Amino acid sequence: MKPLTLKVGPGFYLIACLALTNCKKDTPPSRFSLVDSKDSGIIFNNQLTENDSINIIDNEFVYNGAGVALGDLNGDGLDDIFFAGNQVSNKLFLNRGNLKFKDVSIQSKLKKRDTLEWSSGVSLIDINTDGKLDIYVCNTFMKADHLRKNLLYINQGNDQEGIPFFKEEAEIYGIADDTYSSHAQFFDFDQDGDLDLFIGVNRIEGIDPTEFRPLDDDGTSMSKDRLYENTFNDSLQKQVFIDVSDKAGIKYHGYSHSTIINDFNQDGWLDIYVANDFLSNDLVYINNQDGTFTNRAREMFKHFSLSSMGSDIADIDNNGTLELYTTEMQPYYNKRKKLFQGPSSYQKEIFTKKYDYEKQYTRNTLQTSQGVNPDTGLPIYGEIAMHSNVKETDWSWTPLFADYDNDGFQDLFITNGFPKDVTDRDFGDFRATASRLVSKQKLIESIPEIKIPNFMFKNSSRLQFDDVTDSWGLNFPTYSSGAAYGDLDNDGDLDLVVNNINDNALLLENHTQELDGANHFLRVQLKGTNKNPAAIGTFVEICSDSIRQKKMLLSGRGYLSQPENILHFGLGTKDQIDSLHITWPNGLKQIVTNFGIDTLLTISYDESKTISKFSVAQNDQAILSNVGKKYNLEHLSRDIDFIDFNFQRTIPHKFSQYGPSISIGDINGDLLDDMFVAASRNFEQKWFIQQRDGTFKQESVAYKKSEKLEEEDAGTLLFDADNDGDLDLYIARGCAQYPEGHDYYQDLLMINDGKGNFEQVDNNALPLMKANASAVKAADFDRDGDLDLFVGSRVLPYTYPKADRSYILRNDSSSDEIKFTDVTQEIATELSYPGLISDALWTDFNGDSWPDLILAGEWMPLRFFKNDKGKLREITESTGLANYLGWWNSLASADIDNDGDIDYFAGNVGENINFKASKDEPVRVYAKDLDNNGTVDPLISYFLRDSVGVKKEYLYHPWQDVTKQYVGIRKKFNSFGDFGESTLPEMFSDGLLDDATVLSMNYMKTSWIENLGEGKFKMHALPVETQLAPVYGILPYDFESDGNIDLFLIGNDFGMEVQQGPADALVGVSLKNNGKGKFSTLPLEESHFFVPRDGKSIASLNIANSSNLIIASQNNDSLRTFEPNIKLQKQLIRLENNEVKAILHLSSGKTQIREFYWGSTFQSQSSRYVEPSEAIRKVELFNNNGELTRTLEN
Questions:
Q1: DSSP conformation letters of 1054-1076
Q2: Are 1094 and 1037 a contacting pair, CB within 8 Å?
Q3: Are 983 and 968 in contact (CB under 8 A)?
Q4: Residues facing 858 on adjacent strands
Q5: What residues contact 909, with CB distance under 8 A and at least 6 apart?
Q6: What is the mean pLDDT of the chain?
Q7: Distance between CA atoms of 1194 and 224, rounded to whole angstroms?
Q8: Mean pLDDT (whole number) for 755-764
Q9: Rounded to an integer, what distance in angstroms lies between the CA atom of residue 384 and that of residue 264?
Q10: What is the band of 619 on the pLDDT scale with cuts at 50, 70, 90?
Q11: What is the mean pLDDT of residues 345-362?
Q12: What is the Cα 293 distance to its own chain's centre?
């Protein structure tokens, strides 16, 4: 391959690599192949020799490995390779072309000062800006201070043979740091043009890093990172770095494994992400633009990896924002997983709060930007590694995002392996019993090894990755640590170099240009200012059609390593790019157009070609504003923590924290809608009474009988129970915190005197109902002129997954007596125990004006009950949806496709939890009293790989959890390994589960359901942004006023079992509807619909018929209140009590149906109105009998 350099214009050059097209080569068997060291000349083995003082028993960091860096050290245009060694010498290999390398370590004078120095991370940087790359090496591990001083090799140029030689000058430059540094990042933190230095420190002395303790944030910790400012000393007339850590606020305790530099808040100043091991929090130092930093991790991220290792950042979905990834140690196949996992510890959750730690979990984390928090101006992230299939890759070190197949999407390479796995629980048991009986050497020899393949994940778009380790040629075991990518043979694809422990380093040749020659690429090399010649810290974004790819040039990525300093963009089959946008480190921008592809494009900084200083984009046109304070609707709903797992160890999530519910209606007859917010145990409920000026008066009430207000509200509903024209209040009680049949579960009916004063009716008004209720919805199902009720219940307390009793309550009230009668058996026998019901919806799905019923619940399909003139008949099996078994949370109705019938939205658990379910590989729960002790033992199974990659059905929970739930399992297995090897069928081959209750989940997506007519329906998944956590509140709402029903959704579940931790990736989702059932996600910057916590209920609230608000509740958190920024041009059309349906005749000629039964979505009830818009030509309103009541021309 011969490089051809073409002058394209002032300021940059075009370098085209012209392939020799007449060469004929056999098609390679896989994308990557291992280049034999005999051919490459790369002979480097980071061999470790253990002894009595250097071993994994006495030092946790002995197998942390070392890094590798790529860079052109001799100026010949080819990237060379530098390997760091722990107990062995560091080595430099010069690139001679065609993947041939020469070891020049000795000739380059790169010896360690002392052979006992333990080198770790490595950076190649032109530190003195003389045009030649220098080498900075971090030393660590050894107790003697002088052995930990970092090394700086200043490039003295090439000798007569073209080999660079170096002089060690770390002391002279002031960066012979001896703080147990693991790695370094060079970047310009103060915008003075030169590169400063951040050093990650990882030091354990005298404390147990796995124990909770008060956080050291006063700068006294021995293990805190360092920040050095690059200065020029006038008196010495030389460049010198000075430690400004304390002054800059770099003070937090941590065990730093890696660091990522990024402008997180897009203010033009570079920030610092520190990935810390053990319990120490990951840190996000936001640059204050005055030389100081503030850790704002909690304001941006909801949870983190526990023992964070390597990290990288990349735009994985081509939307111009960068996702952040950190590695951890969670195994990927069942036996290893069960050997690694500890018991589910809720105590850890308690200590996390007590000691003010961040939430951290034992898995890789992938943080995707959800937009800018409108309250703080900081980005807000959602963690999606479980959704993206990259959550568990065993004991992992380096993650490297890059487009390894040139298809236009960033793939992910991960190194892993650990020679001695001290976390193995079988070894832990052996160590506990035998440590005093055997020698340390014997103990060390008995530690299991983790020698497994590295991982390669292909980006399959839509935030998903596929494991292609085997098909891409990487399925061979190693102990790998540091790694770097680069086009070492200049053929247009990225090769890989990997530093191994106790094995020769890997050189992996990429054959993409041979396999996928139709895929194009663009490589961009930057030439910066004199002070920063490599332009470290520059962002480059390519734009083509609607696709954007954004990259940043860093001095280090992954783990202890540095890839090439060229930015490589895969383009797929695109044969041109519209433009290339550069943001230089000083914030100035440059746009480049008119260039070719399949080239190396060199762009030099030229201030005359820049167009503007960096500025943060402001969006004043968001559709919503946060107005809680304006309307006096600020309210904090408290919920005292209850540990459901103490009663059944192996349930998948809590049932005790689903409130508060919201109910809206006019309670005092002033034609202004008021709001009731329910309360959990020990707290009062609250009324929000609307005033004439649109604000609200808050009034606390206690509709509870117990002295300490122990009752807990679930669903609530405002409806006219006694047909006197005012709204009464029904409170369904449920929380699963009290035993079955407890008095605190008795539902409550409060009768309104017409002025907003409520009094409980006598006990005869309702049947004796002490079920653990979850939902209450009203409709006149028998069309006798009054409102009847469906009351749904979820789990029978402490007996998961057995359901509690649900009810159809017929309103048999008269002028003399209020009475609701349980007619469930008469109306529909199946509704007595229909499942773990989370939501219900009265709706007329067949258009016959008899309200039908749909139920949502866990481990079940959506259940459809057709109203046959007052009798409910289940038709689920014939709907076309019977096989979609989900963890359905919520329902809402809307005519989504404007075809004149009612469609539905259904909130599901989403695809970002710890297991995946499909029709072929369902998640199941087996339930039975296995040990005959009077309690149900739920065992959850899922499909996971075994050690050879075959997926089989295994128990989900670790051994300790299962044995606490069912002690009999101890008799079957003598070790964690045996337990982990056993599939569920093998575990219970004795037939013990043959008569167990078995429930399944095979569909996890939040969806909209198309009404096809004739009782048939079709499931459509909503966009990926809605699948990142469980969805609860759903509000159909035409926020664009175009006649198409758009959508607001909220969710998350902070009560998931603690192996996983909270499902918390949602921040509120706004979906635009094109009128044909196609939805697109509105960015947070455009919506400002921000509900980031444990979102539950959502409702619309009519403000004096002239405006409307959107109210969202969050469990154990504040209400969120929003108002559309586009003001109404006409008054809202308020519905009469008897009106339940509207037909909207649209300007497009289509018709749209809307329904207004009582209760709208999960524990929610909205105002009953129609909002006029220019898209609506005429409105027809109908009563429950299908009779036209009003016609309104718009």
A1: TTB-TTT--B---S-EEEEE-SS
A2: no
A3: no
A4: 836, 887
A5: 886, 887, 889, 1001, 1004, 1030, 1053, 1063
A6: 95
A7: 67
A8: 91
A9: 18
A10: low
A11: 96
A12: 26
The pLDDT confidence band at residue 614, using thresholds 50, 70 and 90, is: low
Nearest 5°: phi and psi at 968?
Answer: -65, -15
CA 704 to chain centroid, in Å, comes to 39
Instruction: Tell me how far the alpha carbon of residue 992 is from its chain's centroid.
Output: 38
pLDDT of residue 751: 97
Q: How confident is the model at residue 615 (pLDDT cuts 50, 70, 90)?
A: low
> From the CB of residue 158, how many other CB atoms can be counted at a distance below 10 Å?
16
- Mean pLDDT over 199-210 rounds to 91
DSSP, collapsed to helix, strand or coil, labels residue 442 as: helix
At position 55, the amino acid (one-letter code) is N
Listed residue (851, 811, 855) closest to 830, CA to CA: 855
Mean pLDDT over 1128-1147 rounds to: 95
Residues 6+ apart with CB under 8 A from 349: 359, 1058
Q: Left (φ > 0), alpha (ψ -120 to 50) or beta: where does 910 sit?
A: left
Q: State yes or no: pLDDT of 185 exceeds 90.
A: yes
CA distances from 1055 to 651, 735, 1060, 1063 (A): 11, 13, 10, 8
**In the structure, how many helices (H) and strands (E) does the chain have?**
15, 81
C-alpha 746/C-alpha 760 separation (Å) is 12
β-strand partners of 500: 480
Strands 271-276 and 256-262: antiparallel
Instruction: Tell me the C-alpha distance between 125 and 195, whole Å.
Output: 9
Residue 491 tokens, joined:
């053929």
Question: Six-digit token pair at 463?
Answer: 């935030």
Rounded CA-CA distance 260/321 in Å is: 15
- 1084-1094 burial, b at 16+ Cβ within 10 Å, e below that, comes to bebbbbbbbbb
Helix (H) or strand (E) holding 97: strand 91-97
- Give residue 268's region: left, alpha or beta (phi > 0; psi -120 to 50): left
Cα–Cα distance measured from residue 880 to residue 476, given in angstroms and rounded to the nearest whole number: 45
**275 phi and psi angles, rounded to 5 deg:** -90, 115
Q: Is the pLDDT of residue 17 over 70?
A: no
Report the pLDDT averaged over residues 586-615: 91
List the one residue out of 737, 802, 735, 798 whose CA is nearest residue 933.
798
Element (DSSP H or E) covering residue 959:
helix 959-965
The amino acid sitting at 604 is: S
Helix (H, G, I), strand (E, B), or coil: what is residue 540?
A: strand
Main-chain dihedrals φ then ψ at residue 464, nearest 5 degrees: -120, 145
Q: Are 734 and 774 in contact (CB under 8 A)?
A: yes
What tens digit of pLDDT does each residue of 877-898 get? Answer: 999 999 999 999 999 999 999 9
pLDDT at residue 859 above 80? yes
| Cβ contacts of 1015 within 8 Å, gap of 6 or more | 845, 846, 864, 866, 875, 878, 879
Please provide residue 1178's backbone torsions phi and psi, each rounded to the nearest 5 degrees.
Answer: -150, 145
Q: Residue 1067 and residue 791: Cα distance in Å, rounded?
A: 30
Quick one: which of 98, 111, 120, 99 has its CA closest to 42?
99
Contact in structure between 955 and 940 (CB atoms under 8 Å): yes
Do residues 502 and 47 touch, judged by C-beta distance below 8 A? yes
Q: How far is CA 353 from CA 237, 346, 866, in A?
A: 51, 11, 48
Distance CA 250, CA 227 (A): 7
Counting Cβ atoms within 10 Å, is residue 163 exposed (0-12), middle (13-18) or buried (19+)? Answer: middle
What would the pLDDT profile of 817-843 be if each residue is shown by its tens digit? 999 999 999 999 999 999 999 999 999
Place of tokens 């300007």: 1147
SS3 percent helix, strand, coil of the chain, rounded to 5, is 10, 40, 50
pTM of the model: 0.97
Residue 702 has phi, psi (to 5 degrees) of -135, 85
Tell me, rounded to whole angstroms, the distance of Cα 638 from its chain centroid. Answer: 25
What per-residue string of b and e applies to 229-239 under the rule 16 or more CB within 10 Å gives b?
bbbeeeeeeeb
